[in-house]
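Bench notes, afternoon.
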Amino acid sequence: MLTHIKLSKKTNINKIHFNCWLKLWIETINNHFKGKIADNAKQRGQNITGLMLYKINNI
C-alpha cells in the first residue's frame, strides 16, 4: 500500500488505472479458474481497488 501511495505523490494514479488492473485481474481469473474461490478472488480484487483508491485520495 505504501508503495502505491508514494508513487501517487510522484505521478497521477487514478480510477482509470485501478479499473484497468481490475479488468485484467478478473479476465485472468475467468480464463483459468471458476467456482467459489475464483468468485472470492474477483470480489477481493474489487475490494482492493476501492481501498487503494480511497487511501490514495485521502492520505
